[in-house]
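User: Second chain of the day. Same drill as before.
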Amino acid sequence: MDKLIMSRKEREQITVFKKLKSGEITQNIAAEMLTISERWVREKLKRYRLEGDSGLIHRGRGVHSKKRWSEESRALVIDLLTSEWLGFGPTFAAEQLRKHKGIAVSDETLRKMMITQGLWVPRKRKSKHRTWRERKKTFGTLIQLDGSPHNWFEARGPQCTLLVFIDDATSKILWLEFVESESFQAVASATKKYIEKYGRPWSFYVDFGSVFSVNLNNQERDKKTQFERILKELLIDVSYAPSPQAKGRVERANKTLQDRLVKEMRMAHIHSIQSANYFIQEGSFIQEHNTKFAVEPALEGDSHRSIEDYALNTLFCTQENRVITNDFTVRYKLKIFELERRNTVTIRPKQFVTMCEHLDGKITIHMRNHQLKFKEIDMQIKGKISPIDHVLKEKEVSNVKITTTYPFMGI
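Assistant: Same format as last time:
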C-alpha cells in the first residue's frame, strides 16, 4: 500500500469533501468553511470523486519550478564564486550574473546556495543609536567630500585613494577620481573638475584632514588651509564632520564602492590609476550606481551656482607671501625670480608679494591684485646658503675644522 503524504490543511479538507460528496453540505457552505471560491470547490470535488484523498494534494508537489536554474548554471555560478568572483556578496553576484552571464536568480536564492556551499557567512547586524541628520532639500546644496584609501587594485597594482563627491540630498555620486594620496594637489584638481561640470555648491562637508583644516595651534579657527581659501573665494562654505559617522552618506558609499568597484575593476582587469579613472569617469559605472542607490530630493531643482565670473585656473593654486629683496628678487622653493623694472604697480624692496603655484605647475607673482612681470634666474639656492659672493661656512667634523667655499649661486 502506497504511503500518502498530505499537509495538515489538505487532511482537514478530507472531512469537508466527504460531507460534500454525501450531500450533507452544499458547495456554498464548503467554500465558506475552506475559505476558497465555489469554482475551486467544484474543481477539487471532481478530483476527489475520481482520485479519492490523493485528488486533494497540490499538483505542484514534487514538481520542479520552470524558473528553477539548471544544474549547469548552478555549477557555473559555484565555479565563478570560488575563483575570479571570490568574495562577491549575494546581491552583487546576482546582479553580475544577470549582466554578464544572462543567468536570472534572486538574491535570496543565491544567498541560501552560497551559505550551503560555505561561500557566505550570515552577518548579525548590531544596531547603535545615532542622531539622525535630515537631508538637504535640494540637489547641489551640500556636497560630502571624502578620500577613501584602500587596496583598490588588490594585488594587481599599487594602493591609492579614491576621492568621492556625493550630493547630500540625493546620495548621487557626482565625481569619482583615483589619486595617489589625499594631497592638496589631488583634492584641488578633483574639486575643480567637479565644479567645472556642475557649478558651485553652497557648501562642502568634509573631515578634519590636513588638506581641509589647520588642526595645530588653531583654536580660534583663524588659520586657513589653501583649500579653505579657494572655497572662500568661490563663496562656498566649508563645514566639518566631528566623526566618520556624522558624514555617514559618503562613508556608506565608500564601503559600497570598496565592495563593488573593486570587483568590477577585477573583472575588467584594471590595475592602474589611469585606467581606473577612465573606467569610472568615461564608462557607465557612476550612472548605474546612482540608478540603484540614489533617492529623489525633497524639492526639485538644482542649487548649483554659475562659475561664469570665476577664473578657476587662476583661483585653484597655492599662495605664499614672500619679501622683495634689495636687488628686486624673490625666492621661492629654492628658485630666484627677478621682478622686471616696468610693471603695472610700483614695487619696492621689503614689500610683500604673493607667489601663486597653479595646478599645472605654472608660477605667477601678484601684488595688490596685479600680476607682476618677472623672469626666473637659472640658478638654484644650495640648501639655506645666502646667494652672495663666496660665502664661507665652517663645520666641525671629527674635531677637524673644514672650511667650505660656496661660490655665488653654486657656480
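DSSP finds twelve helices and 14 strands in the chain.

User: Great, on to the next one.
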